């Protein structure tokens, strides 16, 4: 196990209470593991618990596409942790379609609910406590595909673009309360969800699917590459960082 210390032998996030959404696998599971290694107390959530769940975190099952799901997670988190210092809004998914006209109405709504409104709802439920304590760190997970606006994913990238815009505004609103809000934007990362999406995309007749030979740093990302960035942003090392978007993509995607 990696232990993240602050140089004085103390685990860097000891005493911090964290909620990570989508922590059952992929990027979320890596964030949960790193937070636990750094000494934080962690609650995580997904619709279903899995065998890849990191040990040591409390799991809450909920579907975050609904207000009721967000309320259930917020209530359970407050019961378990007493409050929240760190909120990582990570749960998300992309489903490619042949083009925008092939994307049904319900799918646009579903992608907005999961990739944008789930964060808005959870933030609105948990930031009152952060305001009272006058501290907190929130990280939203976007995607480096936003500036590409690739037609099979427009409902997904539009939802994540909204998330990035909202994240910058929320940072302004919460800065006077000592709450920092940032975005981490992953490129192509090897996760169960990422691989499944790229396989579905490859089966569509929609142009070339990017592969890792186009990554300037020469490899695909791993979940810990993203978790490293998240851990930086929620730690005191980033105490003067808010309203930022940290792109972690090996240099591959256009900056938008
Ligand atoms: N992997 C990539 O290449 C990549 C690139 C750019 C951005 N991202 C972003 O990074 C984040 C994590 O992606 P990942 O690749 O780690 O995905 P993943 O392997 O599919 O993991 C997604 C996590 O979110 C949970 N989740 C999905 N739908 C949910 C729902 N309706 N309610 C509650 N939880 C839900 C999943 O659990 P359940 O299915 O059991 O609910 C799982 O824990 C996402 O926001 C994604 O958009 C990923």
Description:
- The chain has helices spanning 26-37, 67-81, 105-133, 154-174, 192-203, 223-234, and strands at 17-21, 41-46, 58-61, 86-89, 136-141, 179-186, 245-248.
- It has 256 residues and is an alpha/beta fold.
- The protein has a seven-stranded parallel β-sheet, sandwiched between helices.
- The chain starts with 16 loop residues before the first strand and ends in an 8-residue tail after the last strand.
- NADP nicotinamide-adenine-dinucleotide phosphate binds at residues 22-28, 46-48, 63-65, 90-94, 114, 141, 143, 186, 188-189, 191-194.
Topology:
Layout: E1 17-21, H1 26-37, E2 41-46, E3 58-61, H2 67-81, E4 86-89, H3 105-133, E5 136-141, H4 154-174, E6 179-186, H5 192-203, H6 223-234, E7 245-248
NADP nicotinamide-adenine-dinucleotide phosphate (NAP) binds at residues 22-28, 46-48, 63-65, 90-94, 114, 141, 143, 186, 188-189, 191-194.
Report the major sheet: 7 strands, parallel
Number of domains: 1
- Helicity range: 25-40%
What gyration radius follows from the Cα positions, in whole Å? 17 Å
How many beta strands in the DSSP annotation?
7
Summarize the structure.
The protein is of the alpha/beta class and 256 residues long. It has helices at 26-37, 67-81, 105-133, 154-174, 192-203, 223-234; strands spanning 17-21, 41-46, 58-61, 86-89, 136-141, 179-186, 245-248. The protein has one domain (17-248): Rossmann fold.
Summary tags:
256 residues, alpha/beta, Rossmann fold, seven-stranded parallel β-sheet, 6 helices, 14% strand, binds NADP nicotinamide-adenine-dinucleotide phosphate
């Amino acid at each position: 196990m990696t232990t993240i210390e602050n140089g004085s032998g103390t685990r860097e996030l000891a005493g911090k209470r964290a909620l990570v959404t989508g922590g059952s696998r992929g990027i979320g599971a890596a964030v949960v593991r790193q937070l636990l290694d750094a000494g934080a107390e962690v609650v995580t959530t997904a619709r279903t618990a899995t065998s890849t769940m990191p040990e040591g975190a409390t799991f809450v099952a909920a579907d975050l596409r609904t207000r009721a799901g967000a309320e259930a997670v917020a209530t359970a988190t407050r019961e378990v942790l007493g409050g929240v210092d760190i909120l990582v809004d990570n749960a998300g998914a992309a489903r490619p379609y042949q083009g925008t006209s092939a994307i049904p109405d319900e799918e646009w709504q579903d992608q907005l609910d999961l990739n944008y409104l789930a964060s808005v709802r959870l933030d609105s439920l948990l930031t009152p406590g952060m305001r009272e304590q006058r501290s907190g760190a929130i990280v939203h997970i976007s995607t480096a595909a936003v500036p590409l606006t690739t037609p099979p994913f427009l409902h997904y990238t539009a939802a994540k673009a909204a998330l990035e815009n909202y994240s910058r505004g929320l940072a302004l609103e919460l800065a006077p309360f000592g709450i920092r809000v940032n975005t981490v934007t992953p490129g192509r990362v090897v996760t169960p969800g990422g691989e499944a999406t790229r396989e579905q995309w490859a089966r569509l007749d929609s142009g070339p699917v990017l592969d890792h030979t186009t990554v300037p740093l020469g490899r695909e990302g791993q979940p810990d590459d993203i978790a490293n960035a998240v851990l930086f942003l929620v730690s005191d090392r980033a105490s003067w960082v808010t309203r930022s978007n940290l792109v972690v993509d090996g240099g591959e995607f256009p900056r938008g």
